[in-house]
Amino acid sequence: MKIWPLGDWINRIGRWPLVGPLLTPFFRPEDNETIVVPVGQAVPVPESVVLPEKVLRPLIEGASARFILNECLCRRAENRPTCPRDIGCLFLGDGALEIHPDLGRQADVDQALAHARRAVEAGLLPQIVHSAFDAWMLGIPYHRMLAVCFCCDCCCSVRKSLRFGPPIFQETVFRLPGLSVFVGPECVGCGRCAEVCLVGAIRVENGRASIAANCKGCGRCVAACPQHAIALYLDPAADPVGRLLAMVEERTEIR
């Protein structure tokens, strides 16, 4: 927590032409990966399937251990949260067994799912994160852990780095597999979606919003559009959960 303010400085100088490249090793995709799970918006999926539980449940059920932090470290460090500070990250895998008990509690599957539901109901955005920094900070093995963070716009270090950090950081954040973002005919080109996009993936061209391939699928543009012209779609044929689990298993072992 004492070194947390350094994060803002690293983000700032990471955009400087001469200094930024020197910081690239600290943001390598090999050591950091985040997958955004959009919530708060209707996402057409097979009937009776609820996001994000459809995505998180296989990870939580399959993990060898689960640990819930007592508080969100981002919201604690920023000390100005607009969302509940006591909804902490969920850590999965054998690494979770090594987290100091003063920081939170071990949880069974039902308790972990209940925690995730509470976070979503509070309007927080789940992000599946595998970060070497998290492992170092907690003193746990990097290749035996995975975090599910429940993030807000005001404090989340990932979302702040997307907006203000070095460009390479964008390469560490991925859209949920199988998720598409569409702009419908209702669009009037007001530009509100472009204003709220964390990664600058939206432009207004010829009076209509256009979404680029670097979109992370967070759904902020959907919520911001006054015309309700933007929609998210999760293609069940793409096996989004299966592809997500494969991505996780390529990086870490949590079962």
Salient structural properties:
two-stranded antiparallel ribbon, 255 residues, 10 helices, alpha+beta, seven-stranded mixed beta sheet
What's a quick, concise take on this entry?
The chain is an alpha+beta fold and 255 residues long. It is built from ten helices and eleven strands.
Task: Characterize the structure shown.
With 255 residues, the protein is an alpha+beta fold. The protein contains 10 helices and 11 strands. The strands form 3 sheets. The chain has a 7-stranded mixed β-sheet, with helices on both faces. A two-stranded antiparallel sheet has the order 8-11. A hairpin with a 2-residue loop joins strand 9 (202-205) and strand 10 (208-211). Helix 3 runs antiparallel to helix 5 and helix 3 crosses helix 10 (240-251). The radius of gyration is 18 Å and the shape is globular. 39% of the residues are buried. The model is unreliable at 44-50 (pLDDT under 50).
